[in-house]
Specification:
The protein is α/β, with parallel strands linked by helices. The protein is built from 13 helices and 20 strands. Helix 9 packs across helix 11. The termini are far apart.
């Protein structure tokens, strides 16, 4: 009887050792997806990794730059149908499980992204931590992605959009955008993606292998279009949009600046300086170098390193529709003129930097709240604590207008140590 039982169980045990699902070699991994408008439906640019160029096959030495990814564009009404159409073109099946970026055109974003939100929330392959960026020309941006020192395309996007030391883009993901739209507690701000204009080309060195050839460097014509900050926070530097960073570059695709949304619709964009201010006000700023000029030494830039270790505190006066935001930053002088340091005490320097930060932050909130009517700081959500019941809160929010609110920013700067570089 025991032998009979073993004979029955043995075939079942063999079934447990079989592979379930697709083999890894049969899958093509999507690294980024672009969505643009078409005459009928949408144009989807599917960017996928070329594994033989990333690690090198049996007869290959690996690739560099644009060789590590390939792009395919299909026309379809939805993401699902786009992937199905693409699967009929290549031999492998596409998987979105490793996608790090979804880029939508300004035109698509202006019409609203609720449909994309719904797709992302239902798709069990797309991870909630994927980034959504807005670009003027989606196809051009993805075609120009040519990493020079990172051979893993997914890692390239991760390092670009998740870099904690980079404050020129917001740190919001698809999950943040979904909750902002679904809850209506705030309006989301997403990264801007763009492409630098090429003025001329020259031979460049492959940074990953040290060999000449492959990628080409360009003189970036777009950087001349960046608006110069005239005073206060980051004075003397350029307020750059995506595509305007760098003078001579190899990779023309860039992420810089902010795309501003009202609910699920794109309503405007701002540059890298406003991205820094936004990150400070929502507590996602880590540290960055900030430049300004003093009246006593207008020809010499003063550079400080700002760090934010605690989240801002919001004090809301609901009756007068007034909000005081208290920001605490640590300051470290990096370069300053001897004349300036001799004339000003540490307390004076802290006060000047505080006023400089307050001025730019108040200008930012005035633009987004009073002019655009957008709530990127989540005031609607912060108002919940002021009401006893959710019914009272929802009734109040029926008449909520972002432009009715007044903001005062109070930045406290504490110097960590004095400057190390002095200029005569």
């Amino acid at each position: 009887m025991k032998k009979l039982g073993l004979l029955i169980l043995m075939p079942l045990m063999l079934l447990l050792t079989s592979c379930v699902g697709e083999e890894p070699n049969d899958i093509a991994y999507v690294t980024a997806l672009g969505i643009d408008k078409a005459e009928s439906g949408y144009l989807y640019t599917i960017q996928f990794a070329n594994p033989t160029k990333i690690s090198g096959g049996s007869s290959e030495e690996g690739g560099s730059g644009g060789d590590i990814v390939e792009n395919m564009t299909v026309e379809a009404p939805t993401i699902y149908s786009a992937v199905n159409n693409a699967n009929s073109i290549v031999s492998k099946n596409f998987s979105m499980s490793h996608a790090k970026l979804i880029v939508v055109s300004e035109e698509v974003a202006a019409d609203g992204l609720n449909g994309i939100n719904d797709t992302l929330s239902r798709n069990d392959e797309i991870r909630p931590g994927v980034y959504i960026a807005v670009a003027e020309n989606v196809g051009e941006y993805l075609e120009e992605v040519k990493p020079t020192i990172e051979l893993n395309p997914s890692k390239y996007y991760q390092l670009t959009y998740e870099n904690n030391n980079e404050s020129s883009i917001p740190k919001n993901t698809a999950l943040d955008f979904y909750f902002a739209c679904a809850s209506e507690n705030e309006d989301c701000i997403l990264p801007l993606a763009g492409v630098a204009k090429a003025e001329e080309k020259s031979e460049a060195t492959n940074e990953s292998s040290g060999e000449s050839g492959g990628n080409e460097s360009i003189t970036n014509e777009s950087q001349e279009e960046a608006v110069k900050n005239e005073g206060g926070f980051e004075s003397g530097t350029n307020d750059k949009l995506a595509g305007q960073a760098g003078v001579t570059i190899t990779n023309k695709s860039e992420a810089m600046g902010i795309a501003i949304f009202k609910r699920d619709k794109f309503v405007g964009k701002m540059g890298s300086t406003e991205a820094e201010v936004y990150n400070i006000l929502v507590g996602k700023f880590r540290d960055d170098y900030v430049t300004y000029y003093a009246d006593s030494t207008p020809e010499i830039p003063i550079t400080v390193k700002l760090e934010e270790r605690t989240k801002p505190i919001y004090k809301i006066d609901i009756e007068n529709k007034k909000i005081d935001i208290y920001v605490r930053l640590i300051c470290e002088l990096q370069s300053v003129s001897e004349k300036y340091s001799a004339e000003h005490s540490i307390d004076q320097i802290e006060k000047i930097i505080s006023e400089m930060t307050d001025e730019r932050a108040e200008s930012f909130v005035s633009t987004v709240y009073n002019e655009m009517g957008v709530d990127p700081l989540g005031i609607r959500g912060k108002l919940k604590s002021k009401f006893l019941t959710i019914e009272e809160y929802e009734k109040y929010c029926e008449n909520f207008k972002a432009e009715d609110w007044q903001f005062d920013i109070h930045t406290e700067i504490k110097m960590k140590r004095t400057g190390m570089t002095y200029y005569n």
